[in-house]
Amino acid sequence: MAILSTPASTVRLASQGRPLKEHLFRIALLASLAIAMIFLVVLLVYVVTQGWSRLDLNLIQNFPSLRAVNAATAGVLSGIMGTLWVVALTALMALPTGVLAAVYLEEYADKTKWYNRLIELNIANLAAVPSIVYGILGLGVISRGFGLGPSVITGAITLSLLVLPIVIIAAREAIKSVPPSIREGSLALGATQWQTIWRQVLPASVPGIATGSILALSRAIGEAAPFLLLGAATLVRFNPDGLDSSFSVLPVQIYNLITNSRPEVQVVGAAAIVVLLAILLLMNSVAIWLRNRYQKRW
Amino acid sequence: MTEIMPNITVRGPEAPRNIEALDPVFTVSNLSVFYGDYEAVRGVDLTIGNREITAMIGPSGCGKSTVLRCFNRMNDLIPGARAAGSIMYHGEDLYGDHVDPIEVRRRIGMVFQKPNPFPKSIYDNIAYGPRVNGMKGKMDDLVEQALTQAALWDEVKDKLKQNALSLSGGQQQRLCIARAIAVRPEVILMDEPCSALDPIATTKIEDLMQELSRDYTIVIVTHNMQQAARVSDRTAFFTAEVDEQSVRHGRLVEFDETSRIFTNPSDKRTEDYITGRFG
């Protein structure tokens, strides 16, 4: 017994100053988080207080006006509708294209071939291209080159190109996370590669694809830069009624309202920001809901 | 007959059969499998008998799984993998130019090491194979039949709509066997089907294999020698050998009736392995 026991002098269970370091580290982590949160809260509070007097139904029911006389009743309806049109069309174009491109890269592309690696590299590069550059592309090629003009479809195509790389990357990650054993199981039953992708891989990656896509789209909703170049008119007093209709989007209207010299008009801009943030939060909540609803089960 | 492993029960020593005379489903001759430039398995000659259980045993890295995955051309899915030599399936070259690997896999089913049910309902797991193969007939009956054959029906008949991943590991593996049976294959390949299961679940799968061998030809890769001895009719012993260029290749050492492999092996290496002196 006595031989086996450790001499008391070697036992060191006493504090060695570690708690203090642990404490400091925790504080540093919290502080980093706080910086992000505080600015968000300040922004929210500021915007809501600025726009509070105009957070009413007129805001989402009426068309915009830059005249101070109308400041009490003017709204951003055409911007909301324009944004919804453009985003819906973008989703319609970018999601199928992006998912199919991701399927090619993940399931078919031979990664030892140089051109496939080049494509991969460039998709990552495209995701980092500033949105204003896409605006120039839209203006030069789609609006003027294809002659589609400053229309809803021009805006949607431009925005599609902007979100496409992000959708491809998100979809690839989702497809990659489907375990290879699922593919093997399907192929071993005599399923073709396409049957395996369509019936096993894609359904299993839907939550990931949906979450990534919604986040990409909600980023796109906040874009003003490409639309400024595309000539999305600032003061549109009608809703889009077709693909070739002229339009405006919320961020452009906000930009226009906020830069107006009349304080009454600026208030409408602040209120419109709240509307934009509400739409963004709504979309993000859908993404979170989707993620939780279809939790991975393997 | 010397008893090398008295603690191992060998499946009934039936009338000794001649390897050459058996009714072959697969005839493997001089099969080598390459991954890129690396020759993983070299020069295998093997015959798989109809409605028999053939076990492939050997230490890790001896190429037994690689050979197994040639039988349904699963190795095609690995970039750079190719097979040389020939595997005849009822006299037809499995690797012939006109052969469609999809059709091969429909006739030669596979059960994997780790149970891999699809993240769908139990019903849909079974119905998947028949559906993708465009099989006609009443799906409900087909599902019941496959689950009954896999000795799982009584346990799951009240929860067919439940997610297959809610089943236990052993049940999942039997589900995977049922899934393979549902497309009515002729052969079932099993790649260490019990290695992720507890002893009770293992016993159930072994009983099931015996049951299934009446209707199906079964090839099983296993690390468990007792399992090979218990269930199989014939056993192929593989090992890894280093050649003159000091490259390791999987080789087939001995192929014989299981009772003979485990009681009176003709090769010293087989004897060393099954008596636990090596591997």
TrEMBL record, chain A:
- Per UniProt, what is one Pfam family of this protein? BPD_transp_1
Any idea which UniProt keywords this protein has?
Answer: Cell membrane, Membrane, Transmembrane, Transmembrane helix, Transport
Name any one GO molecular function: phosphate transmembrane transporter activity
- Which locations, inside or outside the cell, does it occupy? Cell membrane
The UniProt entry lists membrane topology as: Multi-pass membrane protein
Q: Which GO terms describe its biological process?
A: phosphate ion transmembrane transport
Q: What does this protein do?
A: Part of the binding-protein-dependent transport system for phosphate; probably responsible for the translocation of the substrate across the membrane.
Q: What protein am I looking at?
A: Phosphate transport system permease protein PstA
Q: Which organism is it from?
A: Nonomuraea endophytica
UniProtKB/TrEMBL annotation, chain B:
Residues passing through the membrane, by range: none
CDD domains given in the database record: ABC_PstB_phosphate_transporter
Name the domain of life this protein comes from.
Bacteria
SUPFAM superfamilies of this UniProt entry?
P-loop containing nucleoside triphosphate hydrolases (SSF52540)
Task: One GO cellular component term, please give it.
Answer: membrane
Q: Pfam families from the entry?
A: ABC_tran
Its BP terms in the Gene Ontology are: phosphate ion transmembrane transport
Record's keyword terms, sorted: ATP-binding, Nucleotide-binding, Translocase, Transport
What the entry lists under InterPro entries is as follows:
AAA+_ATPase, ABC_transporter-like_ATP-bd, ABC_transporter-like_CS, P-loop_NTPase, PstB-like
Residues covered by the ABC transporter domain:
26-265
Show the GO MF annotations. Answer: ATP binding; ATP hydrolysis activity; phosphate transmembrane transporter activity
For this entry, the protein name equals Phosphate transport system ATP-binding protein
Q: Which organism is it from?
A: Nonomuraea endophytica
